[in-house]
Amino acid sequence: MTDRYAVIGNPIAHSKSPLIHRMFAEQTGQDISYEAVLAPLEGFAATVERLRKVGCKGCNVTVPFKFEAFNIATELSERARSAQAVNTLSFDGDEIRGDNTDGAGLVCDIQQNLKFTLQGRNILLLGAGGAAWGVSLPLLEAGANINIFNRTTDKAQQLSHGLQTFLKRDLYTRKGLKYGLPNFLNSYAELSSKQFDFVINATSAGLTESEIPLPPGIFAPGALAYDMMYGRETPFMKFAREHGAAVIADGLGMLVEQAAEAFYIWRGVRPKTAPVIAALRLS
Ligand code: NDP
User: Fold this and answer.
1) Domain 3-100+257-282 has CATH 3.90.180.10
2) Buried-most residue among 28, 69, 193, 237 (CB within 10 A)?
3) Sign of CA dihedral 54, 59, 65, 66
4) pLDDT mean by block of 10 residues, the chain; 283 residues
5) Known catalytic residue: 168?
6) Choice among 16, 66, 178, 194 that is catalytic
7) Angstrom distance (rounded) from CA 159 to CA 233
């Protein structure tokens, strides 16, 4: 019998997830269906319940429901707990397992597709919303040093402190793992004397074509400028092109890689992502 999956969001019509998962299913011979579901802004939990009742096995969650998905999960992965946000739910009887694959998707895109090493690199992470929370721990786990800056500085501070609290828990001490603690920056002025190996734009400024007032010398030699948005050149990408970033990338690779990680959670099979990224670039 065909297993059902879905992506829930508001808005959702633009989502490429149904196409991506259809390509994964075709490639791996998995018998699944995957649909886009629009949930009313006040109706996320009810939408999940309805999908569970009709036998849906899992769903992806996108803007603006990732924090609500975190709250309805009965079990959480470590990366979901560190992110305090969930983008992948799996349904098993009464259990609702929550995971967050955004960080794994970003790390995979940077290291495997773009061939940059994160270990020891200095990163400026712009933004402190759901996406920034989702990628912070995986970036630290990959050995990067992260500096967080957000237009609303309180939120950058909350993210930095939230991560520090998470990292100091005994789970990490017990494993003997040592990560650099995230640093947060207070103002655009503080950025003016600094250079970074990677500047990752996890803000939604590109959606409104807004420029982020970054200082011109922000890119270290050989730097990567990465915008999580995809589909067009954002003002951030244009700025990076004009101010010395060596490589400029959009978030399409991350989108496909985070979807592949969700597919693996649900199906236990890892699809090949390169042909899917290539097909989406052509579409
Ligand atoms: P949120 O709404 O949770 O957070 C938005 C963030 O952007 C906040 O930090 C906000 O700052 C900042 N921001 C918004 N407008 C501006 C602006 N004009 N100048 C500076 N900062 C601004 O969104 P998400 O974190 O969920 O998503 C962020 C982006 O990442 C979106 O574009 C989304 O599409 C993309 N994304 C891509 C993924 C992929 O797979 N490629 C996966 C997940 C997200 P403030 O706090 O000051 O309001």
Assistant:
1) no
2) 69
3) positive
4) 96 96 98 98 98 97 94 96 95 97 98 97 95 94 94 94 82 64 87 95 94 95 97 96 98 98 98 98 92
5) no
6) 66
7) 27
